[in-house]
Structures are given as C-alpha cells and as structure tokens.
Amino acid sequence: MPTIGLLSAMAVSAQPLPLQRVSLGSVEPVAKENKAPRTITASKALSQDVRIQRVEVAPGIYAKQLVREGQALPTLKPRTTSMKAAGSGFAESFEDWDYSTMPWLPEGWTALSMDADNENPWFTYAYNNLWISDGDGYSAACILLSSDYCDEWLITPEVTVEPGQQLSFLYFAQLFYMLSTDYVDWETYEYTDRVPAAYLQVLAKPVDADEWTLLYNFLDETEGKSCMELMMGDDYSFHPKTLSLAQFEGQTIQVAFEYVGTDGNTCAIDNVRIDMPQMECSYAFPAYSQFFGVTREMADLTYSIPVLPTYTPITWTNTTYEDEAEYLWEYTDADDNECVSTDTDLTVTYHPDYTNDFTTRNCLYYSPVLNASAEGWSTGNYTIYDYFQVGGRADWESDGTIYEIGLAAFDPNTDGYTIYTNDYSEKAEPIFGWNEDVDEFWTSYSFGSDPDDRGEGDYAILTHVFNVYVSPNSPLVFSKAWTHAYASGLNADAVLTLEVLPLVYDEEQWGYVMGDVIATAACSMADAVLQKEGGIRNYYSFDFNFDEPVVIDDTVCDQFVVRLGGFRNAAEYFAPMQSWWDATDGMLHGWVQKEISYNGDARTSLTPMYYYTEGLQSFGIILDGCYPYLEAEADEVNVDVAGITTVALDSYYDASDLTVECEGEWPEWLKAEVSGRYADAALELATSSNEAAEVILTLSAPGVKKSIKVVNGTSSINSVETSSDSPVTDTYTLQGVKVNGDNLPAGVYLQRRADGSAVKTVIK
Hints:
Layout: E1 13-16, E2 20-22, E3 39-45, E4 50-58, E5 61-68, E6 71-72, E7 90-92, E8 110-113, E9 123-126, E10 139-143, E11 150-155, E12 159-160, E13 166-172, E14 184-185, E15 190-191, E16 198-206, E17 213-217, H1 227-233, E18 239-244, E19 252-261, E20 267-275, E21 283-284, E22 290-292, E23 299-301, E24 306-308, E25 313-318, E26 326-332, E27 338-341, E28 346-349, H2 357-361, E29 364-366, E30 369-373, E31 380-382, E32 387-390, E33 392-393, E34 395-398, E35 401-404, E36 407-408, H3 412-415, E37 418-421, H4 438-447, E38 459-470, E39 476-490, E40 495-506, E41 511-514, E42 519-524, E43 529-534, E44 537-552, E45 559-565, E46 571-576, E47 590-598, E48 601-608, H5 610-613, E49 622-627, E50 630-632, E51 636-639, E52 645-651, E53 659-662, E54 670-675, E55 682-687, E56 693-701, E57 704-712, E58 728-733, E59 738-739, E60 747-753, E61 758-763
Parallel strand pairs: 2-23, 24-32, 51-57
Antiparallel strand pairs: 1-37, 3-4, 4-5, 5-6, 7-20, 8-11, 9-10, 10-20, 11-19, 12-19, 13-18, 13-20, 14-15, 16-17, 16-19, 21-25, 22-24, 22-36, 25-28, 26-27, 26-30, 29-32, 30-31, 33-49, 34-35, 38-45, 38-47, 39-44, 39-46, 39-49, 40-41, 40-42, 40-45, 43-44, 47-48, 50-52, 52-55, 53-56, 54-55, 56-57, ...
C-alpha cells in the first residue's frame, strides 16, 4: 500500500471563478461594519469576455473593477498580519476621523494638489466602504480614481529618524490599473506597449532640503509581468511595505505618498510608521481547523471563520522564531471578558453563548492577538481570520434566509475558489478531473511526451482526488457533503463516490497509509444540479448522503481522508473545484491518487497537489458537519417519590435526537424523559418506589454521550436519619442534584454520611 509521498512539480493555470458573497448582516455580539453594495455607473468592453466597470461604492465615491465572462474577478486576500502601532516612534492609522468630516486628515498631515486644473486630494475614509480589507482599524488615507490627469501628494508631519528606524505602511494599489489598457491585444492578453496610466510612489526629504528623494515606485512592480498576470494578481486588500530610511538617520524628514497619472484606480494608505523594525510574530490555529465553506449554490461569506469544538481546550500555537521574545496574548474568554496571557501558547476552553438566536447558532469570538517584543525591535503583533466559531455547524442567517455553508478544508474568503487546467485554451485539460486528453496528460507527465520513449504497458491515469484532515480533539459529525465542478456533457449513468478513510501509520513504510473505508456516499451524475452558467461549460453541484452519520475524532484516527472518485468518463469535461492561493493556515490538504503502470505492472501513487501547482491547496469538498455537545449539571442525582427530579442539560441536539438507555434492563421504578434543546434541554426523572436502587442512564446522539448515575430510595426527606456523627461524603439539593458541600449557600440540603446514614441540613 502506498504511503503519502511526493513527486516533482510542474506549472499549471488557475481559472478564476468568483463566488456570490453572503453579507454578514448584523453580527452580535461582535459587530463589524458591513461592506456597501456596488452600483455600476459605467462599463467598457476590453475584449469579448473582459469588461472594465466604474462602480459607485458609496455616494460620490467610485472605484474600478474587472469583469470576465459576466463575473467580477475575485477579491482575494493574502495572509493577514496585523500591524498595529506599537513602539516609541511615529505611527498613524487615521483612526481619529469622526466618520463625517470631509475631507479630513490627522494633525500635521498635508494633502497637496500639484495640478491646479484637476484637484483630487487625499482624504480619510472608511476603507471597508471601498471594499478594501485587512487594514488597521476602520479608516485609512484614500485617493479616488480620476479619468483626468492628477498629481496628488499626501505628506506626513516632520519626524526625526533615529538609528535603526525604518518606514513601514499598509497600501492598497492595484498594479493592473497602473498601465494603460489602451495598449493591450485582447485576443492574446499581451501588451503592445507598456504605457503608464496612474501610479503610486513614495518619496522623502529632510525638512531643510528642496529636493525629494524617491524611495519606491509601485509602477516598478509591473515590470516583467504579463497583462494576464496583473489581472489575476490584484486583490482588494491592504499589503505591507517596508522601506529603508538609513540615508536619513539623525535627520528630521517628511515622507510623501504621490499618486500621479491619468485613469488609474482608487488607492489607500494605512498604518504609517517610522520606528524600529517590527518583530515578526505569528501563531497557528489548531491543525484540525475547518472553515465556513461554500454553499451548494456557490456562495460564501465575506469574512473568514474557522469552526472549532466547544467544551474542550483550544490551543493556538505560537510559531514566532525569536528565542528572546516576550509574549502577550489578548483574547476574549467564554464569557466575553477581555483577557491577557503571557504564556508562549494560548489554551482556552469555550462554552455556548445563548444570549440570542444569533449567538446560539453562531457562537463567535474575535481571533486572539499575539504581541511579541524583544530588545532592538518595536512590538510586533499578529492576528488571523475575522472570527472563530465554537460548536455547532457552519450555517448562516442573512435577511431571513438560512445558508448551509458547510465546512471546507480551506478558507474560501482568503484562499479563493477555482479550477486548475494545463493552459487557458478551450480544450485545456482539467488535470485534476477528466476529459479525453487527461490520460495522455498524466502519461506524458510520467513517461515523457514521445510514445517511443515509453515501454509496453506504460501509462498513468488519475483515479481520485482527496483531502487529508487532522482529526479534532472532539467529535466532528457529518452525514452529508457536496462538491462543485465546471463541467459539460454529463453522463447520466455515471456515479461519483465520496469515501471517508482513516490514515494509519505504517512502521514498515515509515509513513501513513489509507485504512479500511469508514463510510461511502454516492451521487449520480443525473442528480447533478446546475448552479451557474459558465459560457462553454457550466458549474454544477453534487450532493452526497451517507447512510449513517460519520463521527471522527483523534480517538478514531490521527488523520483521515475524504476521497472523490468516479469522475473518469463521467462527463465530456469535469473540472473539480479547489482553492486557488496557498492556504492561509499553511496546511497542505489536497492530494491526488493515480494508477501508474510500468511495463504492465500497475501500482497506486498518492501525491500532494503542491507538486503540480506549487501551492498549498485543497479540493472543494464541503462537509455538512458540526461539533455537537452534550453536558449535564450533575453526574449523579437522587430521585424521590415526592416529585419529579429535573437535571438541566446543555445539548446541541434537540431532545427528539437524543436516546436514553441504561445498563441492563430498564428498571420498572424509573421514568425518564428528555425535552428541549440548547440551554432549555432537560432530563426529567420520576420514581415510583422508595426502595434503595441505582442505575446508570446514558444519553447519546451522534458524537455525544453523557452518563448520569440515578440513586433511588435514599433521598426522601421523610426517611432522613439524623442519628450519626459520621463524616459527610455527599451533598444533594432537594431536587436530587449532587453539589459541592463546601461553602453552601442558604437552603435545605440532604447529606449522605460515610456510614450510609443520611441527614437533612438547613443552611442559614
């Protein structure tokens, strides 16, 4: 059996496939400003399938976007590193703006229009309203697109540069718009001439000098990049930039951001710092993290949210490479208290939040912030993802609609959603799927393109694609899954399969191998659902339903596989969806399974996608999973003929989904009934006898189990004995719930003694 191994790399092409974005709407208790809808005010055709649009993102505020084949190109984000101001140097994040004064800049900052005929000055604005993400705080210095020539400067206050200090800032400046689109052959997507349009550059000068020194011109980043690379490389997020100020040490200077040219796009600057180098720090979410994914209808959230278990410790692992660093974690605990920790790693246990319907369904917390400091550095800090959810499933309510978003191995909001082919032509082989040329593609890759160089019986065929997952420390449960594909010519008689398999460590092979199949689900191609029309081909979803819920945690296996197969000859063209960019969490999930024959001797090959795409990607297999929970207020209760004993539960499942069983035959004297859900769940117990007896009741549902000891015949107030001085061993409320006997609040309690006698105790 093959181990999880590696092969060599090759270059392939990602095809951008934008998703419908689902707004967060009103989020409680951690609300964020919503992104405003875009209104198209002008549109210009650049080619048969590419248009450039001018959109109004807020009253009087405009930006550009590219549209290809009727869909806006994706707004992907890179890995996010927070750059909050910290240290003794100069720092400005434009957060003192009152959200109404226009135009406004912080004290000491200057906006200059060098062309008096076309003034378009810099101003402070909420960057989120421009659909820009990953800034510091909520506002930034912005300049709007202009179809006329403009030369606009944003100048800092005077700052004295101390030895070792440097300039750092966040910028939003899309490279594609820095070159004129009037000089592009839109048949080949090649520039006929590389003529600057409008671009951003950074300058500095001592306050007593007349001439500015150019520190950096972002136009230089377009050099050597094709039109297609520039189109696909831009996103709607801030990126960090650091520039040396060594030539100005000991001098008092000003820094300028110049936007100059004609017909560019909106730019923005945030978190401008002149300080010591900021320490780079980072941490990792648990390796088993899965994310709000993509709905069957190909929609995803506008924010990044990992889903983690509740009632179990969650550890964020510090990955900072600095031996002498000191750390400070800022985080919110389960009760929404703002907390700090100086531990190297952070471990916190959370419980559900039943404040309202939203928090009950989506128990969200802000991701922790890690601060790191050391001598010779300004304090660095890091956070990743907008929120994380504990417990439950990846469903979302927006405008009265519940979206089943599911769990993905990657974050679609950050990592994108796409297909991969070997080129951009109409017949480009979907190398991780199927068309008539895919077998030859993989055979050529393995044995060379010249058939004369191959031995008799040499071939390579792709049979499966799969994701590898780390098993969580609390049961993950799923009974359904879905995936998407870009496809045409579906064969109604073909059947796709989705299998769940454990990864088992094989000491002889020094690696993990696939164990026996845990569960299998199938989807007929006849049941494929058309979700979007895509031009030459369409986008389909495929549903998989398992016969029984699949329950996975680290007691079942350390890692597991979800494997998609059956797509060979299932359509004329079948390209499964996957993530586009490197995984933000740095995890490699996506793998392929091939059958390779050398001289007629066939074997199985398991290979990571990385060795074909050169990226840390995953397949778009979406698990309709959840992290269930079941807790009880007591592990032992006394029941009495005097009334009903109620044990409060905390249950993800509704009472109708819970079973109640006992060891051996059910006792005739005991009745048990479960009701409610979440914090309203309860176990009600009634007895018809005073005779001493005990039974263990077990409440269970897929992924959860809770045992409660029920004691009968020893807690009746009427039969309480008070004649012993033996020490107290157990204390109960009058409802039969066992409690801690130390520091009891006022009330009446039943206490059991070591000699077996009982006493009624009144605490005043």
